[in-house]
Amino acid sequence: MPRHAHPKGPTAMPTPPPPLAGTTTGPTALRPLIDTVLTALHDGAHRRDGPLPAGGPDAVTPRIRTATHPLIPDHGTGPHHALRTLVTALTEGAADPADPLCTAHLHTPPLALATAADLAASALNPSMDSWDQAPAASALEADTTAALAAEIYPHQPTPDALITTGGTEANQLALLLARERNGPVRTICATTAHHSITRATWLLGLPAPVVIPAPTGVMDLAALDEALTRLHSPHRALLVTATAGTTDTGRIDPLADIADLCATHGAELHIDAAYGGPLLFSPTHRGKLHGLDRAHSVTLDLHKLGWQPAPASILAVPHRHHLDPLHHQAPYLNADDDTEAGLPDLLGRSLRTTRRPDALKIAVTLQALGRTGIADLVDRTLTTAHHLADLIAETPTLDLYDRPTISTVLFRPTDADDTTVATIRRTLLTRGQAVLGRAHTRDRLWLKATLLNPHTTPDHLHTLLDLVNQLANDLAEGNTPR
């Protein structure tokens, strides 16, 4: 046979590559896969049968490893088997924020419509670092961020916002912009500020923050005034970072009074409203954010009190030009002649390069629900938190920390020590019965319920408190929980 001759007879056809999610054929390929995923989500939730899996790490970790072994086989198991196996196992082992007894963190149950929009974003896969990768998505993002910024700064002609991965990135960007405006700015925050403020100063090479006491749960105004007076210098810029919705208690700093002090002392103001910012949509509760529009920058997370799949966060500024320091050039993404020819320059919209079109799910939610629909979700959630506080206050075996400002409720069994409180929380986790957080304030450890589920009913709240009371009784009688 000649050297390059092909053997006679039938030859095996090469296996085609797996289908893609895009173009006109993508939806046809996706439809049966999505059906498999939905079935796996359903089956996994039934197997879990609660807010999180029972047994703790010693049970969860081996189960997920068994389900996925080998994770990288020599020959693939096929799309439906892999989806069914991994999605079922992940769901069975998930802490489900949609369960009304999963209340530990600012971990929201995402709306189905926002999740569906996120699927479309994944299928289209725009990359938000150049217009030619995201023609429509870049326009949608610009309109969505401008609309959200206008909610925060209604009296400014050109407010704008950047989409970020969360409050941590947004707070870091706020400090970066303050540094670029003013040089090595000195940050002032309260003891209740989010940990990302201190971390941002470290990452940016700024001095460590000056920390103001918060004896009532919010920034002490007299202490702030003293610090601003002491630190004032024509050679030093000051940035006060206030909080609208603290992580531990959900308190809101006195924003207008803080803005007044900043104006008096020539300091700038950043407000971390990652938690409380969406109160703006509620006519009933937006007054709690009075003074928000006086900040030089504002962080707002919609994957907290906005019911979006993470990430969905923004950093808003009152004037578009405040974002100019973020401009960056990479000739293959935003060449000068392309920009001059009218192609939008997207690199200054983030410190990240490749990033998802997170504006889509936000825009879908805003349009689908409107102001009244979002306000209803906010109001329902805060009403539920107040109902929980009422139940605790009426229960003689439980102590209530305080009335909730947003939707965080702290409580503990009466006369229990901190060890007992911690044991109750861990036992509920290990049993898979409830997910409660913890907060240390007023020199005591408290159980923390962060209510974000608008479907939570009074029966769910009664069940939660009954579980805590029963465990407290068992521990008081010397019974070791299992």
UniProtKB/TrEMBL annotation:
Residues 1-28 are annotated as: Disordered. The keyword Transit peptide does not apply. SUPFAM superfamilies: PLP-dependent transferases. Its cofactor is pyridoxal 5'-phosphate. Keywords: Decarboxylase, Lyase, Pyridoxal phosphate. Pfam families: Pyridoxal_deC. Belongs to the group II decarboxylase family. PANTHER family: CYSTEINE SULFINIC ACID DECARBOXYLASE, GLUTAMATE DECARBOXYLASE-RELATED. This is Amino acid decarboxylase. It comes from Streptomyces gelaticus. The lineage of its organism: Bacteria, Bacillati, Actinomycetota, Actinomycetes, Kitasatosporales.
